[in-house]
Amino acid sequence: MFGLPKSTEISKFLPKKTIFDRFKPAAAERRLFNEQISRLTIVAEISPQTVNIPAGKDVPAIYIILIALKEAECDKKNIALLSKLIDQRMLFALQHKGAVRFAVYRAGRALISEYKKVDDWKLDLTGFDLDKIWENLIAETSGVDLVEGRNLDEAIAAKELGERLTKKIVALEKRAMKERQPRRKWELVEEIKRLKAELGCVLSDKE
Questions:
Q1: Which residue range is the domain that position 120 belongs to?
Q2: Nearest to 79 by CA among 64, 97, 94, 68
Q3: In a domain, 48, yes or no
């Protein structure tokens, strides 16, 4: 599944009741979980026992959890809850109908990809140990560019900043096109130039 070696494939159902009984999340957390999530199944284990790759200093194994959703969207609170309750490195495959989007919890935030058809996902196990493979899987599924001189968490923060700047630039460009007052229009254009310069620095990792 997802282009992973057949040796990693498993099928272990995770009953929601067992998770609730063991970890006892708050009532509001249980309600949101039940509203959006139908079932959970461990579908892959990436470990020294299943692939010829040594454990890392921090990552002994990686698990792929297939989550069948009742609706297309999954609240990031559910991803955070699962990650905090279960002390494992987990990559969540959120499945709705015939499509899957991946989610992972990292650096205090839930990162969620776009949907693709199940067969279009081909996860690449690149790295000399599971620490590096874990980071590369997060980057791959989250659309994060790992550039030299920037670690994964810095790359995640840069991606989010870049997205915020891009949205702001688009909004200001729309305002500038509609603006009738020359002075105000000029101010908007200058602000757009400044934000584009900042965005360029973020994308190129320049200070």
A1: 6-142
A2: 94
A3: yes
- Structure confidence by residue, pLDDT tens digits, 146-197: 776 678 888 888 888 888 899 999 999 999 999 999 999 999 999 999 998 8
- Specify the amino acid at residue 194: R
- 56-72 pLDDT, tens digit per residue, is 999 999 999 999 999 99
Provide the number of structural domains found in the chain: 2
Q: List residues bridging with 102 in a β-sheet.
A: 93
In this prediction the pTM is: 0.80
Domain termination site, one of 142, 165, 184: 142
What phi, psi does 141 have (nearest 5°)? Answer: -80, -20
pLDDT recorded at residue 149: 65
Q: Which one of 142, 160, 189 terminates a domain? A: 142
Q: How many CA atoms lie within 13 A of 167 on its CB side?
A: 6
